Amino acid sequence: MKFSFAKPSLPASGVLAVTVAAERSLGPVGRELDQKTGGALARAMAAARFSGKKDETLSLLAPAGTDLDRVLLVGIGKAEDMGDLALQSAGGALAVALDKATDEASLLVELPEGAKLAAPAAAAEIAFGAQLRSYKFDKYRTNDRKADKKDPKPSLRRLTLLVEDEGAAKAAFKKLDTLADAIRFTRDLVSEPANVIYPESLAEKTRELEQFGVEVEILDQKKLKKIGMGALLGVSQGSAFEPRVVVMRWNGNPDAGDKRPVAFIGKGVTFDTGGISIKGAAGMEDMKWDMGGSATVIGTMYALAARKAKVNAIGIVGLVENMPSGTAQRPGDIVASLSGQTIEVINTDAEGRLVLADCLWYAQDVYKPKLMIDLATLTGAIITALGHEHAGLFSNNDDLAMNLTAAGLKVGQPVWRLPLGDAYDKEIESQAADMKNVGSGGGAGSIVGAQFLKRFVNDLPWAHIDIAGVAWSKKDAATVPKGATAFGVRLLDRFVADFHEE
User: In whole angstroms, what is the distance from residue 186 CA to residue 487 CA?
Assistant: First the structure.
């Protein structure tokens, strides 16, 4: 969708949306429109019991006294609640209400006295929300396109925001639009089927970040064998697709006193059958998004570089496909990780932690980061614990955990910290190797998975974010249509902005 900004005025024709605060409060230009229509807006709000609460919408077709085709009233709630997330949500509601109704519209942005944000910033946040909510992944729906040629349906493609100081609004939106691009890129990666996105092709997609100045290095199977990533290679050996590890480097602050980078590590299982410990058929198609952690890391590096973040950052993603075959890893196999520690593979469907183990060790051994954060669709157990509302957070550092929690709350991507401890660590003791890859069946599957990863972290701040419950949504949300969510991109971008940019 394209966005532009202009001074507040009543357009002569077309479709106009108008913000309405709580208790049906219209701004000066909104009241002018109501008078022009002979009070039609006020009567419609009263008849529909529309109060102006957040995300309410009410449509009036061809109101008398104007040549407008439609007026859409958009609720933005109470002044004291009118923060960035609330206004983004209003933008999402606007996008839903106008899509399929028109291809172009204007929005009159007027705020009540005491609103948290000034009008230009509010307009930018509304546009950002509309941009996020209007995302679609429909490139393979050819029948829809054929039908549209016969009976074309409009799709909202341009929105003009009418606001005082349109220049400030445009400048504020430019930064948000860059973040929206990174989120859209991430959602596309997760949405693609596994015959399109597999280790080699996903690795090549990361080269698109080079346009922003990101240095991209792709390690192929030969290199991975040479350096000793035995845990990761074990996962990939059943697939016809060779594994890849991608290192993305953004040196946004070369003059920093502490040049150590912030490191992000992502699990990239481009399709997960479970391997020999095969999953059930029902819902297995969803396992195309088992690379969601890697997509979030790629999207985060995109966001940081595109906005020229003053930070040094490393993104490392381990890309494999987990397939059953005559060459696949078997339950009972023992692999040697890059760290030198050996792992008895009890369950081949607990493969993501094997991939991350080698990537975590490689990140700290080669790049000496100040901290590491890994993201992975690691366990179904985290869905049992937290549902689809929070990601699971595990950390060996209280400050890092608090900072991630704070960043998540600010952008509407909440995380919930769960414990680590020696009792859980004992669950992965093995008689045949240094450890096994799953617990003894005593529950706490997400914690045990995190405890496994902790064995590959030396003495530096580290956090593991289990996004299995939030990487994909089966229902629409305010700014996230059902499908790939890109959970974590906004969280990590804000985390960097608030705590690691100079």
Answer: 9
Annotated binding site: which residue ranges? 267, 272, 290, 349, 351
Candidate list 279, 310, 370, 454, residue with the active-site label = 279
Q: Is 353 a catalytic residue?
A: yes
**157 in catalytic set:** no
Q: Are 306 and 178 in contact (CB under 8 A)?
A: yes
Query: Residue positions in the annotated binding site for Mn(2+)?
Result: 267, 272, 290, 349, 351
pLDDT at 147: 59
CATH of the domain at 238: 3.40.630.10
Query: Tens digit of pLDDT for each residue in 413-425?
Result: 999 999 999 999 9
Among 136, 164, 192, the domain boundary falls at: 164
Residue 146: what pLDDT?
Answer: 65
Residue 467 inside a domain? The answer is yes
CA angle 376, 451, 370 (to 5 degrees): 70
Contact 458, 432 (CB under 8 A): no
pLDDT digits (tens, 9 = 90+) for 228-261: 999 999 999 999 999 999 999 999 999 999 999 9
Q: What CATH number is associated with residue 100? A: 3.40.220.10
pTM of the predicted protein model: 0.96
Last residue of a domain, one of 133, 164, 195: 164
171 in any annotated domain? no
With beta carbons less than 8 A apart as the criterion, state whether 290 and 267 touch.
yes
Q: Which residue type is seen at 319? A: L
Pairing of strands 415-417, 391-395: parallel
Please check whether residues 364 and 421 belong to one and the same domain: yes
Summarize the confidence of residues 327-351 as an average pLDDT. Answer: 98
Residue 473's domain comprises 180-499
Q: Which of 133, 244, 288, 353 is catalytic?
A: 353
